[in-house]
Amino acid sequence: MEDVKFSDSASGGRIKLSRGDRMFMGALYATLIMATLVILYPLVYIISSSFSSSLSVISGRVWLLPVEPTLLGYTTIFKNNQVLVGYANSIFYTVAGTAINLAITMLAAYPLSRRDMKARNGFMLYFTVTMLFNGGMIPTYLLVRDLGMNNTIWALIIPGAISIYNVIVARTYITNSVPFELFESASLDGCTDDRYLTSIVLPLSKPIIAVLVLWYAVGHWNSYFNAMIYIRNANLYPLQIVLRNFLIVEDMTTASYSSIPMEEYLEKLYMKNLYQYSLIVVASVPVMLLYPFIQKHFVKGIMLGAIKG
Asked: What is the pLDDT of residue 2?
């Protein structure tokens, strides 16, 4: 096999790969391109369908670009008060829930990362046990009810206020990235624990904070099961419940259209499909907009924080 040839990097030359390496890289890039297309096409199709006429979607004429472009689906959605209320509720649950999650996670991860903390291994064992055993859905529901949080916004925020896995990831990141000697040096200058946390640890932990924000925010935005269990007031429904009602409940009631004229039935069927695609796009946009802002921190945070110590 032909050996790899290295040119002088100081002279601005490039590394010459062997024939086998070039074939491997070519196959790797081809696989990545195919995987990207497989992942990207459903997204492109849904977006194109949401901007196409419902008849062209049902007839199968949409496969890449919009056909007979229209904004009817979006205009109808944003005229629906239930969708607007659900959107506002989801934004609140995501922002408030992520802020609470992040605060509690970092407040738990920081002391567990301090090697001078007594019994920190005992606390870590206690936290880890909760990842293996839990009370189950019924005891959790009874606890939420007895705490008076049933059918309130807090039922969607407080029960999941912390993830032990995320605490472990954040603790490991702080341990590996913020030397304990830095605390000793700051202590000699009179720095207190709270000042050290807010002025040194948190600024140095931006990568893992970005990762935690993404994980918690996506979890809150996509959550619907807790709302199904705890929420009865339609004014408190998150967007995902509204989306579920359109995608699932409407399909279950299609049989009720059998008694209406065929033209009216087809019109309802066309509009229902258009609503579904438009709602999927509307529900996905906030999460897709979140990624570019934390992308530069994401890879570093997930790599360093995922090494459990």
From this structure: 47
